[in-house]
Automatic annotation (TrEMBL):
Source organism superkingdom: Eukaryota
Family statement drawn from the similarity comment of this UniProt entry: Belongs to the nucleotide-sugar transporter family. SLC35A subfamily.
Compartments, record wording: Golgi apparatus membrane
Gene transcribed to yield this protein: SLC35A4
Plastid as UniProt keyword: no
Pfam families named among the record's database cross-references: Nuc_sug_transp (PF04142)
Organism of provenance: Ursus maritimus (Polar bear)
Protein's name according to its UniProt entry: Probable UDP-sugar transporter protein SLC35A4
Keyword hit for Transmembrane helix: yes
Length: 323
């Protein structure tokens, strides 16, 4: 699959093997995120400030990028430092920051099941911006594959996992607080549409930026995560009273931060050498990892919806050329 088609670049066998390994690692880290967060819970709640975890993740990515440049893993460009090329990454950081905060506010205007199902519309918005901004056309097979990914995500969110003690459909977390009716307010629907549009735009804009600039990936990441740290530092400082910066952190929480930081770096490589479409397949395939880990670690039961979602994802991968 070519970069233009939304897949991996044309590589020799050894490099193709490394590319495949990178995609598999990213899929595993995406899928492990929610189960690892669940293992952090104390009395059913996350004991630390989410903004602290996000800030630490951005800081870890920044330090890893700086380290790779310092030790020479990636060459520093010759001549004067290209600081002017850093400015466009401020928009990427702003879009990602806005999206991360929208996720929190969306929960006020709809139930979790509705959010999980409708948020799969971001697959469509990403494909739309991919075609408009990068001027690439998706074939009928590729379009059908993305529709299958949307259907798989909706199917999984609607009931792919179930708590053995909960007979209600939907996410297992719904049982702990009692049944919550499916609902979404008009404002919630508008915010959800905005969330999906920003999600697609941020992904495609960052891909376009990374491919147009002839700079080492580590340096581009250095620019991006510098703005990300500054933005999240401001959000954390303005977040009001709450637990201390590292209060409530455990070994599981540290693993969440490290895995998310490494996954962010892997995804930046996908955006640089692959495409936003490849990223969509990674995120969708991670649902399978998420379900298996949830069943193994949290003792949740896999339902028929999970196996249907897995089948749809498999068909989507098969339909997408050379995926």
């Amino acid at each position: 699959m070519s970069v233009e088609d939304g897949g991996s670049p044309g590589l020799g066998r050894p490099r193709q093997a490394r590319w495949t390994l990178m995609l598999l690692l990213s899929t595993a880290m995406y899928g492990a995120h929610a189960p690892l967060l669940a293992l952090c819970h104390v009395n059913g709640r996350v004991p630390f400030r989410p903004s602290s975890a996000v800030l630490l993740t951005e800081l870890t990515k920044l330090l890893l990028c700086a380290f790779s440049l310092l030790v020479g893993w990636q060459a520093w460009p010759q001549g004067a430092p290209p600081w002017r090329q850093a400015a466009p990454f401020a928009l990427s950081a702003l879009l990602y920051g806005a999206n991360n905060n929208l996720v929190i506010y969306l929960q006020r205007y709809m139930d979790p099941s509705t959010y999980q199902v409708l948020s799969n519309l971001k697959i469509g918005s990403t494909a739309l911006f991919y075609c408009l901004c990068l001027r690439h056309r998706l074939s009928a097979r590729q379009g059908l594959a993305l529709l299958l990914l949307m259907a798989a995500g909706a199917c999984y969110a609607a009931g792919g996992l179930q708590d053995p003690g909960n007979t209600l459909p939907g996410p297992p977390s719904a049982a702990a607080a009692g049944p919550m009716p499916l609902h979404i307010t008009p404002l919630g629907l508008l915010l959800l549409i905005l969330y999906c549009l920003i999600s697609g735009l941020s992904s495609v804009y960052t891909e376009l930026l990374m491919k147009r600039q002839r700079l080492p990936l580590a340096l581009q990441n250095l620019f991006l995560y510098t703005f990300g740290v500054l933005l999240n530092l401001g959000l954390h400082a303005g977040g009001g009273p709450g637990p201390g910066f590292l209060e409530g952190f455990s070994g599981w929480a540290a693993l969440v931060v490290l895995s998310q930081a490494l996954n962010g770096l892997l995804m930046s490589a996908v955006m640089k050498h692959g495409s936003s479409i490849t990223r969509l397949f990674v995120v969708s395939c991670s649902l399978v990892v998420n379900a298996v880990l949830s069943a193994a670690l949290l003792r949740l039961q896999l339902t028929a919806a999970f196996f249907l979602a897995t089948l749809l994802i498999g068909l989507a991968v098969h339909l997408h050329p050379d995926s």
